[in-house]
Amino acid sequence: MGCFGPTLVPCPTGAMSDHGAIRHEGKYKDVSRPDLILLDLNMPKKDGREVLEEIRADKNLKTLPVVILTTSSSEEDILKSYDIGANCYISKPVGLEQFIKVVQVPGSAWERTELLPTK
Length: 119
Fold this sequence. Notes:
The protein is α/β, with parallel strands linked by helices. It contains six helices and three strands, in the order ααβαβαβαα. It has helices at 13-18, 20-23, 48-57, 75-83, 96-104, 108-113, and strands spanning 37-39, 66-70, 88-91. The radius of gyration is 14 Å and the shape is globular.
């Protein structure tokens, strides 16, 4: 987090696929480590669940909070995401502005949008 709140750094799908942006590699070497990762499950180059598994297996990245922000509200996707280490699962169509409002207000707003497994 910056001095005046979070700084959003767009991360193209390819960058997440090889973690270049979060490992400070290549053209991302001067980018600060993120405080939070918003991860879509349905990316064109690599499945988000696979990316999450890789993040959780990496000793330098495994403590980063990962919020799944995706179109799926499938119970199977929710269960699998939490099982492999997601910190939160939010189903779109939550826009960025609405998402920022949710994370700025701890407790009640977060609880209204987060999806938990029913089992």
